[in-house]
Amino acid sequence: MKVAVFSDVQGNLPAMEVAVEHILAWDPDLVIMAGDLVNRGPSSRDCLDIFDPLRRERGWLPLQGNHEAWVLRCGLERPLDALDADMRRIADWTYRQLADVEDALLGWPDHVSFHAGAEDSWVHVTHGSMAGNRMGVSASISDAELRDRLPQDVALFVGAHTHKPMERRLEGTKIINVGSVGSPFDGDVRASYGQLERRGGEWHTRIRRLDYDRARTERDFLESGFIDQGGPLARIILEEWRQARVLLAVWHRRYGAAVQAREIGLEQAVSEFLQSLDR
Hints:
With about 280 residues, the chain is α/β, with parallel strands linked by helices. The protein folds into two domains: about 1-210, Metallo-dependent phosphatases (Purple Acid Phosphatase, chain A, domain 2), CATH 3.60.21; about 230-275, no CATH class. About 40% of the residues lie in helices and about 20% in strands. The protein contains eleven helices and ten strands. The chain has helices at about 15-25, 45-60, 65-75, 80-85, 90-100, 145-150, 215-225, 225-230, 235-245, 250-260, 265-275, and strands at about 1-5, 30-35, 60, 110-115, 125, 155-160, 165-170, 175, 190-200, 200-210. The strands form two sheets. A five-stranded mixed beta sheet has the order 3-2-1-9-10. Strand 5, helix 6 and strand 6 (about 155-160) form a beta-alpha-beta unit. Helix 3 packs across helix 5 and helix 9 packs parallel to helix 11. It is globular and about 60 Å long.
C-alpha cells in the first residue's frame, strides 16, 4: 500500500503544481491533503481549483488545518476593531478569493485513520496532533510532551503544521511530520511532502523534497494584491517564504503585546522587525 500525505501548501500555486505532478507520477493508493491548503500565500483560489477535482474524481482526502478554520471564521465574523482588521487582512483577502466557492472547504474532518489490512498497521493523520490543529509534532518536544499529542495504539502517526519535516519514533509508534509544500521553515526552500509505503510487514516513510519555480511564486506574491492588500504582516509572510524560516512567530513574541497595547503602531512594528533582519 502506498500513501502520499502533503500539507501546508498555503496558496503557493507553483509548488502545488509540482507536488501534484510528483504524487500522480508516484501513483499512490491513497492521497491525503493534511490541511492549510489555503491562506498565507497569493493563490489560494487556484490551489483549491486544482485540489477539489482531485478530491471529487480521484478520492483525494482533505483534512482541515488551522488556516481553513481561520479563513472560514473570518467570513462569518467582523473584525473587533481597526487594529484587529489590520491584523487579519491576509485572511480577509483570502476569504474574498474563496467566498463564492467556500462550500468546497466545508465539512473537512480534523483526523483520518486507516490500516493496511493488519491490526498492527493502523495509521493516524491530522494537521497538528491530538492536542489540536495548532499543536504540531516537532523534533524539539520531549517524549513526555509527545506522548500527550499522539493517539494510542497506532503504528504510524502523520502530522504537519510546523512546516519542518521530521521523522522519529516513540516506543512502538513511528512518527513523520511531512513538512510544507508551499513554505518550509527548515531552511530548505524546496517543497516537502511525505510518502508512506507498507511492505515487509511494516510502514516505510520518506520525505520528498521538490524544486519548483520560485521566481514565479515571488511574482505571484508581488502582483496578486497579497502584499498591497494583505496589510503589514503580509511583508513578514513573504520574507518567511523567501528565507524558509519562522519569522511571524518571532515578530509576535517581540512586538505583539506592545501592538495590542497601542504602544507602537502595527506598520512601525513590522518595519522595525524587517529592518532588524538586515542587520
